[in-house]
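We modelled the chain as a single entity of 203 amino acids. Its sequence is:
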Amino acid sequence: MTNIAAIVLAAGESKRWGADNKLLAQVDGRPMVLHTVRAVLDSKARPVLVVTGHEHSEVERLLTGLPISFVNAPDYATGLSASLKAGIAAVPPGCDGALVCLGDMPWVKSTTLDRLIESFDPDTHAAAVPVHGGEWGNPVLLGRALFPNIGTLSGDRGARALLKSAGERVREVAADDPSVLRDVDRRDSLVYPLKDGDEPSRP
């Protein structure tokens, strides 16, 4: 049986959002990051690791009591790669891979996460990505074979280049779920659907 952990990236500074922390913003009556974490908890991924950094005490307070573990990324301000490396380093040895989930995707569905997990074969695949409308989305599932390469990332770079280099070993999973293309970078992202020309964040 494949064992897949989940990493929720919740350490960023929300620079495109504004002065306050977007992960704490209310979406349908709940803080944005709580939507994401609850969807992950409803999936088959275990353990669930939440990477914090910017305003970590406020984020952790919101999530206290949930069956998750916090991972601190002290150098979160250097970019997305710092959070990703902290999360990957905390994945237990017995896991075959990790779902990398952005904390600012409050509409992500647990069923989509489970489909990624069920489609992933650690003996065959280096990763699994959801595909909607012909476009790669998030979250992505990184197999353990890619973990050592995460350490080569720097700045605000995610794992997209690593996925591209893996070629045919990346399992593309059809997702009838437009939320895989929709994260919240700006305030108007909470009101309007993803527009042509918008560039979703990529782990």
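As a brief sanity check on the tokenised model: Helices lie at 32-41, 56-63, 80-89, 110-119, 147-150, 160-166. The CA atoms of residues 18 and 201 lie 17 Å apart.
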